[in-house]
Amino acid sequence: MKFTAVANSNIAVIKYWGKRDEKLNLPQNSSISFTMDGQLSTTTTVEFDKKLTRDELVLDDKATGEKELVRVSQFLDLIRNRAQIQSKAKVISKNSFPKGAGLASSASGFAALAAAASRAAGLQLSEKELSILARQGSGSASRSVFGGAVEWQKGNEKNGSDSFAIQLSSEKNWKHLRNIIAIVSSEEKKISSRAGMAETVKTSKLYKKRLEEVGRRIETIRNAIRNNDFESMIDAIMQDSDSMHACMADTIPPIIYMNETSHKIAKAVSELNSSEKIAAYTFDAGPNAHVYTTKPQEVKSMLKEIDGIQEIIECKIGEGIRYSEKHLF
Ligand code: DP6
């Protein structure tokens, strides 16, 4: 049977950067994100087929390289083991991201793959089980199972059985919140998050300090989410992004993802907040800015004054995984 699932990307306000187990993708700290709307989504169709001699993967109409295929095949092995099947799979996947925006995300990718492939293998997983499964493809994918505000609880068990995401608040409670994304560069990053975070854990002294402080920020943001109060999480969001990028810069050799335009945006957001707090910037492992705000017009006018921004995308807070009858093959 063929199954198709759609998952949206998510942008963290408390970042996941560093693992305690690289094979199982178990994080050093819990993280919190908002799930984006369908503008940043992946649709994936999977079918297991006895006739295939190896897994097949087509991403955005192109056959993928060996490295990506191996990563997907190993992920499918987890599902095959659980479902007690041997068949190889055909996987066709499409991102809705604006082409060349540098937003390609493993979060929506592995969440959609986990959902479509587990159903195609005959498994009926709970959302918790799906989050644990998606996590093993890519850590941030554990959060894309759910819509709205989501926390990936780091867990303590060695086997990862308690490291999964939960929904903190439905997307329905965040109708006024936007992520204004400023595309600054569409180049593929030179150091993957996976490789970068492993180096930070190994070599950064500042990283220990981050782990000591992050709990306090998590508390602040959890409370803000519980009270549906965006303003009271603004400072913590920016501090957490700054802390992650400081640890990246403290890595030996340093890892630098933000560029001059990214820094200009961060400064402009801080200035915008000087009279009234209305926006929070956050940057992932790349130079593109994500500016969370409930005043999108003001943020967009501010961004229009900054040189070096190629495109501005306004994203709403979106839903979790859903299944579709519109198969890609
Ligand atoms: C900076 O989830 O891509 O976006 O688990 O190795 O696949 P792997 O890493 P990934 O890392 C995302 C890092 C981040 C922060 C975040 O999304 O929390």
Secondary structure layout plus pairing:
Layout: E1 2-8, E2 10-14, E3 19-21, E4 26-27, E5 31-35, E6 41-49, E7 56-59, E8 62-63, H1 66-83, E9 88-95, H2 106-120, H3 127-137, E10 149-152, E11 165-169, E12 178-183, H4 193-203, H5 206-226, H6 234-249, H7 260-272, E13 279-283, E14 289-293, H8 296-304, E15 311-316, E16 322-324
Parallel strand pairs: 7-9
Antiparallel strand pairs: 1-6, 1-16, 2-5, 3-4, 5-10, 6-9, 7-8, 10-11, 12-14, 12-15, 13-14
Bound molecules: ligand DP6.
Q: Helix/strand-derived class? A: alpha+beta
Strand coverage percent: 15-25%
User: Could you say which overall geometry the principal axes of the C-alpha atoms support?
Assistant: globular
Q: Note the gap between the termini.
A: 12 Å
Main β sheet profile:
6 strands, mixed
Q: How many domains, as an integer?
A: 2
Order of helix and strand elements from N to C terminus: EEEEEEEEHEHHEEEHHHHEEHEE
Just give the CATH class of the largest domain: Alpha Beta
Query: Could you give the count of β-strands?
Result: 16
Listed once per kind, the bound small molecules are: ligand DP6
Strand order of the largest sheet: 8-7-9-6-1-16
CATH fold descriptor of the largest domain: Ribosomal Protein S5, domain 2
**CATH architecture grouping of the largest domain:** 2-Layer Sandwich
What is the rounded Rg?
19 Å
Q: Total helix count?
A: 8
Uncertain runs: none
